[in-house]
Amino acid sequence: MPSLKDLRNRIASVKATQKITKAMQMVAAAKLRRAQMAAEAARPYVERMDDVLANLAGAVTDPRQAPPLLSGTGREETHLLVVCTGERGLCGAFNSSIARLARERANSLLAEGKTVKILCVGRKGYDLQKRTLERQIIEVVDFRSVRQLGFDQADLVGEKIRDLFDGGGFDVCTLFYSTFKSVIAQVPTAKRLIPADVPAATPAESRIAYDYEPDETGILADLLPRNISVQLLRALLENNASFYGAQMSAMDNATRNAGEMIKKQTITYNRTRQAMITKELIEIISGAEAL
Questions:
Q1: pTM exceeds cut of 0.90
Q2: Which residue among 2, 23, 99, 246 has its CA within the 20 to 30 Å range from the CA of 286?
């Protein structure tokens, strides 16, 4: 049975942990608002980019003239999985849910005899994937030193993907990230980057007719590389908001659990202390009666 000193030390330790989790919850709540606003501000731009690409792709009459980023290589033998996760932990199942979705896709492709390559954006993604898929990981991009994620970081990753594709490194590229819904809901998402996953274009009779200068193929050749960076920017911003939402929820649960532990340990301490006092009183009374 633990002594009173041991119980006091346990209570003090849990209280110190509770202070830390409470502070982390408040910090995450303060950063969440800005991250959420950035993610929501990027969504209309990405949606408009999808609409423009859909309109341009629908206007291309000869698929053979379509840029490779739109049509692909015509093969599906080598797959590149871009796994975007956080740089830190203590955020519940945020990182593990993204890694699990990517791992399931990788295992499915490997079972079909495909070649899988993984590009990890975020240190936690690498830590979770290296246990079973270390041979498939080709590079890790770490943004721990970056205070605020922006288009420069997204374009850096996009340039790596484009260079790898131009060199014949893969046929299909899929992006994995978490879409921010609310503080308690972050949805792991998979989106194909190459060939470009453009929405279905509206029928020709209902689509507004545009005259493009230069032609559609030339504009697509310029927009498609930019679209990769835009999609990566959205993934980074959505991940950032999802991370703070998940961390806020996780630290709130940890603070509540610490409070319950303190209550239980305090009850145990009081009962142990009362038992010791009662035992001492019995010993005193027994000694007095023996005299």
A1: no
A2: 2
